[in-house]
Design goal:
With 291 residues, this protein is of the alpha/beta class. It folds into two domains: 4-159, Rossmann fold; 167-285, no CATH class. It contains nine helices and nine strands. It has a five-stranded parallel β-sheet with strand order 2-3-1-4-5, with helices on both faces. Helix 2 links the parallel strand 2 and strand 3 (56-60). Helix 1 crosses helix 6 (148-159) and helix 8 (220-242) packs across helix 9. The longest helix is centred in the last third of the chain and has 23 residues, at 220-242. The N and C termini lie far apart (42 Å).
């Protein structure tokens, strides 16, 4: 009997949960928002009597549930430990300043608002409430730098059709000068490589330009790094899959996130796709203006 695919979408208010649910619905998921957690498993039992008409379900759970939210941990454990369900807990997060800006732009009230509390107070309180859910997450998505369209593309690539048992691998570039990505499992610093920024003809280009790509990949040091890092990944991936890991986020960083990290991200993704490993690979570039 085919397992029922279940995505549990949770995270910070303002981090993009409603966008993700809309995109999943477009991808054929039966989406349920703000259902009391005590009813999650009963709902899945009902779905399983539908004769296979519904194969993919997405739940949204967050602090809007009020008193019902207190039971969410037990409800999620019941789902994630069920042999009849292939579940993924997805936590949406964003930097505090991003959440504040989004709330001010939409003029919406925070779910934890109360007289005398600032918006930042509400956000920090929500972080405390959600701390254990973040720890339960199979995947954390930092939406701080995403536009709705970029988030749409990310969801489509990450949750598109995959073979059972595949590991969803996200490879992304970033610039250390703009901060570390919050959702990375593996972070690799490639600032030891020669920097195209100091070549006048490449300073304003991106790592996707052939001139920059040829310069970075033409270094013997780059090739040595790719050989060693590639071996490490091909050792890790089957062991991650064996232990039940479903998502792996790899972040490749250089100074500005425009040259070296972009080239290496594209190359590592290509190597993984061609390796024959059981992976579904997506690529993104956080700080490259031309990506």
């Amino acid at each position: 009997m085919q397992k029922l695919t279940v995505k549990i979408i949770t995270g910070m208010s303002g981090a993009g949960k409603s966008h993700v649910v809309n995109y999943l619905e477009d991808m054929g998921y039966y989406c349920v928002d703000n259902l009391p957690p005590d009813l999650f498993y009963k709902f899945l039992e009902l779905i399983q009597t539908s004769g296979g008409k519904i194969k993919k379900v997405a739940f949204v759970v967050d602090v809007r549930g009020g008193l019902y939210f207190e039971t969410v941990k037990e409800a999620l454990l019941q789902i994630t430990q069920s042999p009849e369900v292939d579940s993924t807990v997805v936590f949406l997060d964003a930097a505090n300043e991003t959440l504040v800006r989004r709330f001010k732009e939409t003029r919406r009230r925070h779910p934890l608002f109360a007289p005398g509390k600032s918006l930042l107070d509400c956000i920090n309180e929500e972080r405390t409430y959600l701390e254990y859910l973040r720890g339960m997450a199979d995947m954390i998505i930092d939406t701080s730098s995403f536009t709705p369209n970029q988030l749409h593309t990310y969801v489509q690539r990450t949750f598109g059709e995959m073979e059972d048992g595949d590991l969803a691998v996200s490879v992304s570039s970033f610039g250390y000068k703009y901060g570390l990505p919050m959702d990375a499992d593996l972070v690799m610093d490639v600032r030891f490589l020669p920097n195209p920024y100091y070549q006048e003809n490449m300073r304003k280009l991106c790592g996707k330009d052939d001139l920059v790509k040829d310069y970075v990949l033409g270094q013997s040091l780059t090739q040595a790094f790719l050989e060693h890092f590639g071996r490490l990944l091909l050792f890790l991936i089957p062991n991650y899959i064996k232990e039940g890991k479903k998502n792996l986020s790899i972040a490749i960083g250089c100074t500005g996130g425009q040259h070296r990290s972009v080239v290496l991200t594209e190359e590592i993704a290509r190597m993984l796709k061609e390796s024959g490993a059981a992976v579904h690979v997506t690529v993104s570039h956080r700080d490259c203006p031309e990506s």
